[in-house]
Amino acid sequence: MIEIIGYIFIAVGLMFDFFGCLGLVRLPDVYNRLQASTKCVTLGTCSILFGLFLFKGFTASGIKALLCIVFLILTAPVSAHAIARGAHISGVKLWDKSVCDKYEEDKKEM
Q1: d(CA 70, CA 82)
Q2: For 29-75, how does the pLDDT look when each residue is reduced to its tens digit (9 = 90+)?
């Protein structure tokens, strides 16, 4: 039963990774692509690692998979935010049809 659940987590992770990679190709600007890649890493890769943990259990490999999940959850959103903020500060333009620009609103308030 645990193996079936592990397979399900791995399949869901592969789907998230596939659609995240597809988003990198299809989305129009750096900010949208960054969002797709961050979702791909946090949801897809963490799901695959959790499926691996379900297979291995509390062995050395399983504990390493859990530690990788914690590391990815802590670092991926922070690094994506830093990259997006750096791109905005350096003048990378948003897509023409973007609805709002929160960084620009924050600059005007200061």
Answers
A1: 19
A2: 888 888 888 988 899 999 999 999 999 999 999 999 999 999 999 99
Provide the CA 20 distance to its chain's centre, in angstroms: 8
Task: Compute the distance between CA of residue 74 and CA of residue 50 in angstroms, rounded to an integer.
Answer: 16
**Coil, strand or helix: which one is 55?**
helix
- Residues 80, 82, 86: CA angle, nearest 5 degrees: 115
CB < 8 Å & 24+ apart, contacts of 73-76: 73/42, 73/46, 76/38, 76/41, 76/42
Is pTM beyond 0.85? Reply is no
User: Residues 6 or more apart from 42 whose CB is under 8 A from it?
Assistant: 72, 73, 76, 77
The CA–CA distances, whole Å, from 79 to 10, 14, 38, 90 equal 25, 22, 9, 16
